[in-house]
């Protein structure tokens, strides 16, 4: 069964940067697209970014385009989210996701807090 573990969250000032990582196990990592989502208190889960299985295609939510970059290292079974020019509205729990044969798997999430 697929397992995902996120890391790299924390507290940062507005305008700062963070890099999140999500390490996967229990799956053939290089065969699956990966995604990042976030959920702020009282809000619905929001799509942040996704990347194809080889990394050749990336997609971003409108609110993060131009500021966040998703990448992956298939040798390390890890997907990254580089977050620059962070804003207070980026504060949320960030989780990575993989869909395998119709089933969604999620990590436990990592908290990102951006102070103004």
Q: How would you characterize the overall build of this protein?
A:
This protein is mainly β. The chain has no helices and eleven strands. The chain has strands spanning 3-7, 10-13, 18-25, 34-39, 46-51, 58-60, 68-73, 78-83, 92-100, 103-106, 110-115. The strands form two sheets. Strands 2, 4, 5, 6, 9, 10 and 11 form a seven-stranded mixed beta sheet that branches. Strand 4 (34-39) and strand 5 (46-51) form a beta hairpin. It is globular and about 40 Å long.
Brief summary of the model shown:
By secondary structure, the chain is mainly β. 0% of the residues lie in helices and 54% in strands.
Helices, strands, pairings?
Elements: E1 3-7, E2 10-13, E3 18-25, E4 34-39, E5 46-51, E6 58-60, E7 68-73, E8 78-83, E9 92-100, E10 103-106, E11 110-115
Parallel strand pairs: 2-11
Antiparallel strand pairs: 1-3, 3-8, 4-5, 4-9, 5-6, 7-8, 9-10, 9-11
Large-scale geometry: globular
Radius of gyration based on Cα positions: 13 Å
> Percent range for helical residues?
under 10%
What do the pLDDT scores average to?
Answer: 97
The biggest beta sheet reads: 7 strands, mixed
Number of H- or I-type helical stretches = 0
Beta-strand percent range: over 45%
Class of secondary structure makeup: mainly beta
Low-confidence stretches: none
- Count of strand segments: 11
Distance between the termini: 40 Å
Order of helices and strands: EEEEEEEEEEE
């Amino acid at each position: 069964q697929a397992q995902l573990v996120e890391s790299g969250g924390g507290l940062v000032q507005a305008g700062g940067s963070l890099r999140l990582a999500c390490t996967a196990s229990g799956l053939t990592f290089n065969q699956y697209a990966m995604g990042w989502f976030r959920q702020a208190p009282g809000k619905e889960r929001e799509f942040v970014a996704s990347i194809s299985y080889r990394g050749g295609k990336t997609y971003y939510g409108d609110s993060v385009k131009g500021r966040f970059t998703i990448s992956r290292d298939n040798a390390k079974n890890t997907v990254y989210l580089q977050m620059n020019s962070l804003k207070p509205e980026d504060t949320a729990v960030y989780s990575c996701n993989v869909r395998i044969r119709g089933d969604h798997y999620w990590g436990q999430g990592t908290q990102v807090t951006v102070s103004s």
